[in-house]
Amino acid sequence: MSLLPWFRLILCCCFFSPLALLAQDSHLAEAAAPIPALDNYFKESLNTRDGLPHNTINAIAQTPDGYLWFGTWEGVARYNGREFKIYDRSPLTGLPDVGVRTFHLDRHQALWVAGSRGGLVKIKDGIWQAQPPLGVLINRVLLDSQDRLWLATEGKGLYRQNPDGSRIVLQQTDGLPSDQVHSLLEDQAGRIWIGTSDGLVFLDQQLQLQQPSAVELHRTPVFALTERENELLVGTERGLYSIATPTSAAETLLANVPVSALLQESRDLLWIGTVDRGLLRQRHGITEQLDIRQGLPNNRILALLQDNEKSLWVGTNGGVFRLRDAPFTTFTTEQGLAGNFIRTVLSHSDGCMYIGSSRGLNQYCKGQLKQLDLSAVSIGQSILSLAEGPDGSLWAGTYADGLIQLQQGQIVQHYHAGNLLPANEVRAILPLADGKIWVGTALGAAYIDNGTAQYFSREHGLPSPFIMALYQSADQRIFIGSGAGVAVLKPDGSLQRLNLQPFDDADYAFGFAEDTQAGILWMTTDRGLLAYDLANDQIRMIGRAQGMPFDKLFQLVLDQQGYFWISSNRGVLRLERQVALDVIAGRRGWVDIELYGESDGMASAQANGGSMGAAALYHDGSVWVATSMGVSRVQPERLQRFARITPPVVIEELAADGTDYAVKDGHQLAAGTNRIEIHYAGLGYVMSQRIQYRTLLEGFDLQWVNRGSSILAEYTNLPPGDYRFRVAAAYPGGDWSKNEAVLTFTVLPHLWQRGWFQLLLLAILAGSLILGIRWRLGSLQRSELRLRKLVAEQTAELQLLARQDALTGLANRRAFDEALQHEYQRAQRYHTTLCLALLDVDHFKRVNDQLSHAVGDEVLKRVAAVLKQQSRSIDLLARWGGEEFAILLPDTSLEDATEVCERLRHKVERLDLNDIAPDLHITISIGLTTNYKLDLSQLLLHADQALYQAKRDGRNLLVIAGQPNKNG
């Protein structure tokens, strides 16, 4: 590859004057703005650490199936939103060299790949079709409307490959300004525009070479071309120009900027890649810039693509950079915040959001950020808490300067340790309707009334003097959250401490949120979510045992769509309100949680807590969260827009007993195939990790199987037959993809399982029988008995093989499902107890990866042997799949089932496996549930969730569904 042209271009650009950007609005865009400001896009980068083969991204494309493709100097990288698959020089690709310079997606939906040594490949329907190489670097490829293929080269001019495969070259000797061709475009009139290192020319409909009239486009390198309605945009070394016709004058859109790539998103929005100035965006006459100072990996832009979900992908010399819309938008000091460490937010009746940070107080109104100056009374201006008074005044609690009252931005009152407050660290504020105010500090609470103060601390009945939250319920009770629990001040003046010990010994009470419709006061604590019934003073808990992913929760906000948003140190949780009410009412035992973090637009998943208020609902319906890196905002209504997007789904891999097969219909898998694995992926890139999947294996599954976010379906010991695998994908809360990915295959029978063989065998036996009759009657009788016995044994063997796991000798999934259905119906009919346990060998993948699959298989057989030895005769054992086992315990109480499961767990833990591998030690995790008030699907779901909880709590545990983990 010749670097001289790029070196010359960069050297030339160093002497240009800096880019004169037009003045930009300093205020933030409103949430409803159709085009986010560059600051409001979620930015992320991918490079070699994420799986790319090289950090220089020369080309980007998206094929109709949804895959993203990246061209680098070390091959092609195909991306599915989770991982890259690399294609380099190999018989599969037919590329003569790994260096890829350009992609072209033609009108027939084929992807052309070209690059070093003139390599040229066409990819269609997953098939790589190599073309004869040119022997010189190909810079651009274009298939025109006449199916002529144009190849722009680095030093050998422009090649035209006709539909019959013949090639014609156009060079400088034929009138081309230079043999170095950088860009190609076919316009609406059928003209072929050619950008060279020495100017722009075009071929008319008669393929006559001509030069446009605009002198600005002569004698200058032309690197990028695109059309915008009826005009041609030309990116050159000297800037960006537009011409309406070949004979019209050029209009300068951007001067003295070396333009390397162009992407027209809409009539009024143009993305511009530059050689050394980063990424530019022009809209409505305003040019905005994004470079390495705002997170761009490198200022040299080589490729631009907008994908099907409207994300912008940028190829740079430092990897792939992406701008996308995300559920969350984060505001930091870059947008005008006083500081990034946000402790409190307040939605005010004046329509503004107030944001308190460790370095000051901001007011957000109508898309504008303004800092309020508190330096007159607060040197550090470190804000801990915010509240609104009944008169509309703003109260701000500080870290070291007490409590400040503001009216219309002006300081009107200041309380501190020398003036009514017990301490200057103010974490909670509760203004009352009658003008009085409660103030929570690090040394107790103060009740201020008309210039006098009454103090409350531990000696007055508070659990702790460290006050973090205050709340007044509709019945005038004051709830006080502290570092050691909750106290309630009743209207009669008595102080009651709530007993939180039964709820996993909850201690810190970080915040309160009242659900007036349900009559519940929700308390966020260091042991999960507590529901306080304001009518009967009863407390219910939603903690780890009910599905909370971790303990410490800071602030709950109820949005306008009926969902809870709960801040925490590990992200923001979203929980459906009705589900939470059902759990505390005992109508269900488990909550479904969505956890949002940095991949969803938050600059940091660490939300802050310990003061009022850590999160707030804004008047436009958005939820604001205080974090350690700015304030993050989510508009719940926008999540519905994400859910409406249905990601396409593809099947990526098929493997049987460790052998990979090409993904195509009709594979015939060998008789006795033990394990079949099918990998799939939803090709959505907005929330790739959140895509949900369901599968249906026709011929085996009776109904769809929800796979969650798992991208693998595994089947063991499928009986012989024809199968059709279907998979669908969806974003959380969205519709399943209508265009499912489908794969058909056949599991062949053994010779003795084939119908013709069995018929032949019967014929032979019948013939022998006839011959035997002729010899003597006694021989006929012996032959008949032998025949019946043989047929019975073979039939029994066939039935056994169809219902038994070949590796372990246990029942297989199919047999277990039938037994489960039967036992469940029997338990329902006779009102008996049925228990179900799911077992999983801990860290089994590590055994396979480090010691081999053969060792893994031997481990599974040993575990199965222990299960058979230690189980009771009435129990049904089965291999559930992979390293998972299932135990059905009919007519067994939960206590007896617990005893059986613990015995199994201990026996496996003490299992001596040194004869398999030295120092090999294994354990199992068990999830146990019972059929009490559960239907069949819930029985399986609860057992699986309990198993997942055992895994998450450290493994080698037994977890009973709906009960706290006493082993964790």
TrEMBL record:
UniProt keyword terms in alphabetical order: Membrane, Signal, Transmembrane, Transmembrane helix
Example of a GO biological process term: cell adhesion involved in single-species biofilm formation
Family annotation (Gene3D superfamilies): 3.30.70.270, Immunoglobulins (2.60.40.10), YVTN repeat-like/Quinoprotein amine dehydrogenase (2.130.10.10)
EC number(s) recorded for this UniProt protein: 2.7.7.65
Cofactor annotation: Mg(2+)
Protein name: diguanylate cyclase
Signal sequence region: 1-23
Any one Gene Ontology molecular-function term assigned to this protein's record: diguanylate cyclase activity
Domain called GGDEF: residue spans: 832-963
GO CC annotations on file: plasma membrane
Residue spans crossing the bilayer: 756-777
InterPro entries tied to this protein: Diguanylate_Cyclase, GGDEF_dom, Ig-like_fold, Nucleotide_cyclase, Reg_prop, Rev_trsase/Diguanyl_cyclase, WD40/YVTN_repeat-like_dom_sf, Y_Y_Y
